[in-house]
Design brief:
Layout (H helix, E strand, L loop, with lengths): L1 H15 L2 E3 L5 E3 L15 H4 L28 H12 L2 H5 L4 H4 L9 H17 L6 E7 L4 H16 L4 E8 L3 H6 L19 H28 L3 E6 H8 L7 H15 L21 E6 L17 E3 L4 H8 L9 E5 L10 H6 L3 H13 L30 E2 L17 E9 L9 H17 L3 E7 L3 H5 L5 H10 L8 H5 L3 E8 L3 H14 L5 H9 L10 H13 L15 H5 L3
Parallel strand pairs: 3-4, 4-5, 10-11
Antiparallel strand pairs: 1-2, 6-7, 6-11, 8-9, 8-12, 10-12
Helix pairs in contact: 9-19, 9-21, 10-11, 19-21
Length: about 600
């Protein structure tokens, strides 16, 4: 697929003289990301990455209303905007078909049954007809705790009914910035009022608006977690605010860079089921493999064998979608993943990622022993060799000596962020070496250190390691147009006149984990849902229920029970001190 896309972009280069067509009909040189201060129209991602692109009408299912429209008259404008915001942030409105009368936002402001069947389902049906055999689905939801989360849940249910044997992976991308998250009112049932509307203006109205926003965020977040995770085989939450730290140039974060970092990490983490495996040339010979997968799993016991017979673990050329999902989900109780990655270019002052991967492994010990034997008798004894445990690269960057940054809503510091404090059900590491990597065969050189780094220190039930002999530059090309220009501008430093060095020196290390590190996220989401459903907030709940923005209180009992069960399945090990003893206040607050 990458080769076909590269051929397409070369054709575009010849036709457009190394320029990309923007949305307004003009041409813009594809050498830099869109500038926020630019007066002209911004180029979207799709205008940079792998053109040419099909017409939107061939695959997109646009919403049946304009999400940015506002009333033309000043009268009632503020109230209508608030109603529209409430509807767009409602998980229930996206999940259940509604009518415009229910939303109170005028004609067409709803996701009706007609639109779902005639537009959305029809688009999905056409996509499925183009598949020879449907193996699985990747569903990416931006703002899962909103209208899109409810719509995605209904879509996942439909896909489960129509394609029962196909797996489903759901990525829930939270675009909320750190400033917006910090500005929300922290919900707790014991600290809330009755939830009645305040009368007045000024500070009271602003405080009321913040409380309503926090209530809806808590309610929709819990319902989204329940709906999306229960209708997918694997559920992966991603925080764009965390992703922004990975590629922030000069400390400046942006959605453009955050999305690029997330794309690099997700692309690498899904490599195991997207590899081609053995390929035959025109002469009938088998081309050398450019990748290697190592597996430590009872799922492959007795069937997986080492390709060369010398590895202490099973190896494979590629995995099927079902095998990939089974490795990451060793039991039905554990289906929530977290994502960590390193996607930044290696600087002169950075610890070499290659050295970090090798440290403490059998590969390094053999190298040290060979050097000692070579120089035996030539120097004085300097003491026993330093003994280090492999796998420290899996920790967070900073004081723990790690190489990764969290891309999921995880803590980046404190005891909860230390991977070795947690129980691990599955770990999957994928590595794209930099184009400047000195190894002649990275797939063979790094797979053993990666497998030992995961297995020896963290002891997951299932570990999966993947290494490809293809860098980001090798995947996207080094041209000054299309994907080459896009990634060169993203990975280069803003103060550099040339980005070629950064483009060459960018490895991608992506780690998918199924562990108790996700417990704080599950706990806060469950507790917030519990607070939103408490008696203290019954007034807000009743009002949103009447407006068609929330389900009946009784209908939420299954969701809150499932959220707490999922949270308990990921409770950290006893004695770690990481579990929260503050149990759900919903049950105690609603006792008569």
């Amino acid at each position: 697929q990458a080769r076909r896309q590269l051929q397409r972009q070369q054709q575009v280069a010849r036709e457009s003289s190394d320029a990309v067509q923007n949305g307004s009909g003009g041409t813009t040189e594809a050498t830099a990301p869109p500038s926020e201060e630019s007066s002209g129209p911004d180029l979207a991602w799709i205008d940079f990455f792998m053109p040419p692109h099909p017409s939107l009408s061939s695959y997109a299912a646009p919403l049946p209303f304009n999400t940015s429209s506002t009333p033309s008259s000043a009268s009632g404008q503020k109230q209508t905007v608030q109603q529209q915001h409430g509807y767009l942030s409602s998980y229930f409105a996206g999940y259940h078909a509604s009518s415009s009368a229910t939303t109170g936002l005028g004609s067409g402001m709803s996701l009706s049954t007609t639109w779902r069947e005639d537009v959305l389902s029809e688009k999905v049906r056409k996509l499925l007809e183009d598949c020879d055999a449907v193996r699985g689905f990747n569903v990416v939801v931006e703002g899962g705790a909103s209208l899109h989360g409810g719509l995605a849940t209904s879509l996942l249910e439909e896909l489960g009914d129509e394609c029962r044997s196909a797996g489903r992976i759901c990525y829930s991308v939270d675009p909320t910035s750190k400033d917006d998250e910090d500005g929300r009112v922290k919900l707790k049932a014991s600290e809330f009022g009755r939830g009645g509307m305040m009368v007045g203006g000024g500070a009271d109205s602003m405080a009321e608006a913040k409380v309503i926003e926090s209530f809806r965020s808590a309610l929709n977040g819990g319902l989204s977690l329940y709906g999306l995770s229960s209708n997918s085989d694997i559920f992966l939450p991603i925080s764009l605010s965390n992703c922004g730290d990975a590629l922030a140039h000069g400390g400046k974060d942006s959605v453009f860079l955050s999305s690029a970092a997330a794309a690099l990490a997700i692309e690498a983490s899904t490599l195991p089921y997207r590899l081609l495996g053995s390929q035959f040339s025109s002469a009938g010979t088998i081309a050398p493999l450019k990748s290697k997968i190592g597996i430590q799993s009872g799922y492959f016991a007795g069937s997986g064998q080492s390709l060369n017979g010398s590895d202490p673990y099973a190896t494979a050329e590629r995995l099927s979608f079902h095998e990939f999902v089974s490795c990451l989900k060793p039991s039905n109780r554990h289906s929530i993943l977290e994502l960590d990655a390193r996607v930044r270019p290696q600087g002169e002052t950075d610890t070499s990622l290659d050295d970090a991967l090798m440290r403490g492994t059998s590969v390094e010990r053999k190298r040290i022993e060979a050097e000692a034997n070579l120089h035996r008798g030539r120097h004085r004894y300097s003491g026993p060799p330093r003994v280090e445990e492999p796998g420290m690269w899996l920790e967070n960057c900073g004081s723990y000596g790690g190489q990764l940054l969290p891309f999921s809503p995880l803590s980046a510091s404190g005891a909860a962020s230390v991977r070795s404090n947690h129980a691990h059900f599955a770990l999957s590491t994928s590595y794209r070496p930099a184009a400047s990597d000195p190894s002649s065969d990275p797939a063979a050189a790094y797979i053993t250190p990666i497998m030992e780094g995961m297995g020896i220190k963290y002891r997951p039930q299932v570990s999966l390691g993947s290494v490809v002999r293809q860098s980001i530059r090798g995947l996207t090309g080094n041209a000054g147009y299309a994907a080459g220009a896009y990634w060169k501008s993203v990975l280069g430093d803003s103060d550099q006149t040339s980005t070629d060095d950064s483009y060459l020196k960018t490895p991608v290390l992506s780690v998918l984990g199924n562990s108790t590190r996700i417990y704080p996220y599950l706990n806060s989401t469950s507790m917030n849902l519990s607070a939103a459903l408490s008696r203290k907030y019954r007034g807000y709940m009743a009002r949103d229920t009447m407006a068609g923005l929330a389900p009946e209180d009784e209908d939420c009992s299954e969701a809150i029970e499932a959220c707490f069960e999922t949270r308990d399945a990921y409770e950290p090990p006893l004695g770690s001190g990481l579990a929260d003893d503050d149990e759900g206040g919903y049950f105690s607050e609603n006792e008569d």
